Amino acid sequence: MSKSIDTFKTRSALNAGGTNHQYFSLKSLARAGVGHIDRLPFTIKILLENVLRQEDGLNVTQDHIRAVAGWDASKQSDQEISFMPARVILQDFTGVPCVVDLASMRDAVAALGGNPAAINPLQAVDLVIDHSVQVDRFGGPNAFGENVDLEYSRNGERYSFLKWGQSSLRNFRVVPPGTGIVHQVNLEYLGQVVTTREGFAFPDTLIGTDSHTTMINALGIVGWGVGGIEAEAAMLGQPVSMLIPQVVGFKLKGRMPEGATATDLVLTVTQMLRKRGVVGKFVEFYGTGLSALSLPDRATIANMAPEYGATVGFFPVDEETLTYLKLSARPSDVIDRARAYCQEQGLFRTDATPDPVFSDTLELDLSTVGASVAGPKRPQDRVNLADTKSSFLAALPSLVKKTPAPVLAGVAAAPLSTPAKMASEGPVGVQPKPSIDTDHPVNPNALVDGSVVIAAITSCTNTSNPGVLVQAGLLARKAAALGLKSKPWVKTSLAPGSKVVIDYLKAADVLESLENLGFFLVGFGCTTCIGNSGPLPEDIEKGIKEKELVVASVLSGNRNFEGRIHPMVRANYLMSPPLVVAYALAGRIDLDLTTEALGTGKDGKKIFLKDIWPTNAEVQDATRKAVRSEFFAKQYGQVFEGDAPWKAVPAPKGDTFAWDAKSTYIRRAQFLENVPRTPAAVSDVRQARVLALLGDSVTTDHISPAGSIALDSPAGNYLVENGVKKADFNSYGARRGNHEVMIRGTFANVRLKNLLAPGTEGGVTRKLPGGNVTPIYDAAMAYEKENVPLIIVAGKEYGSGSSRDWAAKGTRMLGIRAVLAESYERIHRSNLVMMGVLPLQFEEGQNAGALDITGEETFDIEGIENDLKPLKLVTVRTTTNGQKREFKAVLRIDTPKEIEYYRHGGIMPYVLRQILSK
Q: Which stretch of 178-182, 258-262, 826-830, 837-841 has the lowest confidence by average pLDDT?
């Protein structure tokens, strides 16, 4: 920490709670006449402290410091800075590939004559195992234990590998499965607000391999999601290269009205910010309305920053922050340090704090927020609760399964895995489950379009919030007392983000009421929202298939993209936990809960939502009494030790990992094999073919699914060929440590629409020229044999969604040299560069349609070999049937550092060579 050359002489001393710390003073910088620090947004101040502390004259210079301190709200900065987070946080879906890459790098270093033990995280790294539990069992008291048993039986090999990492890698800790979701563990325990190292105090900052790392912004901690590739580089001491961001201020005033929830607020905020356009920008909340929001309410909003497109959704430190630190059993020195440091540095907000100067502003009166849901396909598609029925009916024609049409005249249909067949397989790798309610057997004939078949109070966005969870419990208690039950065709589940949730639901005396409606504990981790919803009962699946129904899921999560929740569920809606319970009671999404009855009570009278909706006073009183500091202290007292099943997992030893050639879970990273000491020269792209021609809003879920693996798919065929039974397939997410599975799963989402194969749905394309419909993987391998480079052509918001490293890795390993799109999601664009793939962007006003691109063309991309620089215009030439066309595209390699990564063939070879050079 003392390595800063401190040319502005800002190194100072601070006493906090009787302990002396050194720090780099923003006030001292202001007194030196640098910048206009007082009115800077809080997030820019934190970036400023970071570069001030990291000044070395090379990666960070006086010019960088002056650029951040002189931040101009009216302009988009072209100044690149190097940001060094205090720590890195991983979850196991994304974390396992990170550890695989580190282990592979150790092998690569050894192969080149270096010391493998030199490869270690240089920053503090925590990995929380939270994405591996699936909702196989539900609706009964044994669901949790049985799901845990299945989780360990499926994932023992992965867990053993992570234990090797924990014992062999320095600065690397693992939070065992069954503890909670990474974001909530971060919020409730790991986050420090102000951290210390080597006698210095400084803001706790982080990057994480889950896009919803942004939840920590609620605690006044700047953190955002990155790809696993970028996280690995930061773990190895590489700064995050970024342009100084624009900051959008979101002013809140007033108080929430009766009946409105934090979920309703975040869906409103998401819709507003998506409409304004904040991709790549910081969003900072300000105004007196912040004092009316609890920290969990803020966490609900911060969590969904990826859904509204911002890099962060930040809330400054204030008295509510410190109150939460105390409630969650943080030590007194942590609280004292946070107060003293933030007040001294101008990082502490009060209602009297002058409004910062922002690049743009929005304003919301909290009193105008009303009951809302979002769906059926995107988080930003908010509708008022009263309009849900009409909204679903309007969307229904577009959700109906369409019979595949002929691809092109004279082109044969697919002889292999058709999308319809792949989708019909449903979830795999799971066992049959008990019915939700044995007293009410399911009649498949009761299912209709709009039937709710999944109702999940799922972790992440809302289970960090005691208010909405207690509210769901109070609603369940009232409903049960009146004789209402969840409909028998609804798969109900409760998957809290931490064990503390169960403690306070019990203390509020509402857990039993939730269980009475089928909402039994199914696991502590990321479930329905990531696609770990598990299979539906066989009779339900049968009813959906036979009548080709458009059924619905309702969940209290943050993601509802196509094909994500369950392959057979085409309409997916985000909502608050109490509304999840309400729709489970109704059993239909095509119901106006504001005017139509939920059902009939035991006295024969119709019961409406208003009859069982808890008042704000009831919720506040129950929450205040139930949420206790001792619950946090108990659950996090020995958080890294784990339970008996975790302790029983074997932990291999050694500086290098002993790879099992027969493993279908963990394999050495192919792209880190045979890395030369010096990179080859970059070259233009010649005679490339289009592997997929895609439309707007293609997400990383479309590119790299995390859910079930279809039996009749390239990945399923690979597993069967390697002796894996269908019941043991597990999921793409769980197998992210095996590139052979993941490359076969790239572009394998059952809802992908590739315009090269019109009338189809799923991971298929045509092998050009001509060619039958075939799985994308098979076509890519055929092109590879012919040494034909590949490209993807897409529309707006390409790569939106979770920060999937495999969306970029799989793209590279399929032989794709470039992606040409109208616009990109921030993380995926960065990840493409870091895997050596060119992200190209159509010039303003152009797209595939305007340029008559059909996907039948061959593409030449020129301007890469010579004068490669950020954001330059390159020439794209297409040829089809002898007709040639030329246009310009923007090279979306945005910074000089990214140019270096691309020249080295990706960030991992770059880091490897940097280490070897030392």
A: 826-830
Find, among 97, 94, 43, the residue nearest to 71 by Cα. Answer: 43
- Name the DSSP letter for residue 189: I
| CATH code for the domain defined by 87-368 | 3.30.499.10
Q: Are 486 and 457 in contact (CB under 8 A)?
A: no
Q: Which of 325, 359, 327 is nearest to 342 (CA)?
A: 325
One fold for both 87-368 and 671-704+746-917? no
Which residue bears the tokens 């920060």? 803
**Which sign does the torsion angle of CA 642, 646, 651, 656 carry?**
negative
Cα gap 634→629, rounded to integer Å: 9
Cα(567)–Cα(443) distance, integer angstroms: 21
CB–CB of 312/214 below 8 Å?
yes
Residue extents of the structural domains in the chain? 87-368, 442-635, 671-704+746-917
Q: How many whole angstroms from its chain centre is CA 858?
A: 35
Which residue in this structure is represented by tokens 């999308």?
419
CA-to-CA separations, 313 to 8, 324, 499, in angstroms, rounded: 31, 18, 26
Q: How far apart are CA 261 and CA 525, in angstroms?
A: 23
Task: Determine how many CB atoms are found less than 10 A away from the CB of residue 440.
Answer: 13
* Angle of the 295-303 helix axis to the 262-276 helix axis, nearest 10: 40
Angle at 572 between CA 464 and CA 421, to 5 degrees: 125
Which residues, 6+ apart, have CB-to-CB distance to 162 below 8 Å? 92, 95, 96, 99, 127, 129, 174
Residue 108, both tokens: 């690569």
Rounded CA gap, 449 and 459, in Å?
A: 27
CA 869 to chain centre: 30
Alpha-carbon torsion, ordered 356, 360, 364, 370, to 10 deg:
-140
pLDDT digits (tens, 9 = 90+) for 411-460: 333 333 322 332 323 333 333 343 343 344 677 788 999 999 999 999 88
**Phi, psi of 572, rounded to the nearest 5 degrees:** -130, 130
**pLDDT tens digit string along 166-206?**
999 999 999 999 999 999 999 999 999 999 999 999 999 99
User: What is the fold of 671-704+746-917?
Assistant: Aconitase; domain 4 (3.20.19)
For domain 442-635, is the CATH number 3.30.499.10? yes
